[in-house]
Amino acid sequence: MPTADSDSNLSPSILSTVMSESASGHSDADAEASQRFDADAVTRTLAGDTAAYDRLIEKYQRRAVAVAYRLLGNIEDAMDACQEAFLRSFRSLASLKKPERFGAWLMRITSNLSLNYRRGRRPTLSLSTDEEQIVLEDRATAVSPGTRLTAEDSLQGAETEDAVTAAIGSLPEQQRLALIMFAIEGMPQREVAEILDCSVEMVKWNVFQARKKLKELLAEYL
Amino acid sequence: MTQRSEQLERLLSERLDGDLTADQLTELQGALSENPEAAATARQYERLNDLLAGWRALPGDIDWQEYARRLAGGVAKDVIEPSQSAAQETQGDPVDGLIQEWAKPLPDVDWDGLRSRISAAVREETAVTTARAAGSRKRWRRTAAWAVTIGTPLAAAALIAIVAWLPRTDLPITSGGGGSVQSVVVVSFEMPDSTGRIAVTFDEAPMADTGETPVPQPPGGVAIAIGPSTAEHGETIDEALFY
User: Does the ipTM surpass 0.90?
Assistant: First the structure.
């Protein structure tokens, strides 16, 4: 399937707008432009213009992989989950009642697949202390000289990362998803509310509860 | 945690998201400047936010264009191509398709080889048919031999029995030393019940010696003329029948 061919009528300016929207700020006008883009792309895809679906892939792949990666902790697993999400959404595209909501729908599929994958996954083998030390020293020497880290720094960083991972993992699912999508990934509250099938106020409340709990759990690192 | 501190923490959390109004921001700044403990909490939230921003950040070396091609290729391979081939199979006028198929030139055929294969198949079929016919004739001969050996004596015996018993069925049947009919036994059969049993009832009834023949037959049963009675009146015998 070719990507972004010239005969598609999706405006490059709209595309650049929605691309930047997906990564940074989000005004109402941006959100409307993004939804129009999605609706147009979905309609074209359903009419047989498969290149239009490539535009949706380009628009959402980074966000989908980022969320999946934060839920799964492994980039390859995240990319596989994301690919499966795009496949499933393509197969079920005709059942999407609001084409302008494609983004939220895709992210819901992605997060569900990631959570299911996480539940069914075997625990990863942990390295022994000596092996861990070697790996961390290798990491430390691999970075550029200007930002060289000592093994001790890496150990501390790894310990902090493990603590954050454990703390986030202990959150209730809705709080974890709200925190990752909204507070960490920067997705619009309204979209997160759609994905989680709740109100915007509920998203805010979940994020607040998550932060409050993390502040207690990670007190020694703050 | 008091309600006020809970509210303060919520404001601190929402400040990180840029959700506070100008008034709320002013109020919060005032509270933080007056309360060192609240300021420390605010710093904790900011630090937490920084920590979360760096947690599991995407690796910087991902080739997104290549990944997009991989995703698009996966969609094409798993979804689009199979559905297109299925659509090609089902769409279009079937007659048009047939005409196009017929219009194609015949493929190269090894006619000699085909003739040999057909001839061999015909010979094989002929051999099988002949063998079947021979087998059928053998079965008929066996049946006829059995009929002559077993069936003929049985038929003769049956004929003798009929000749011997035929005059008796015409009644009157004499009893003992040629006396006249004294009674009849009426044998009646009932409809089979749910288990398949049939009740056969024997009812003996005295009969006037009128010298009339034959004995009148009752509906739904058989009357047998006998001599001096030996059967018990009203005796009933149940016979189990299988269907």
Answer: no
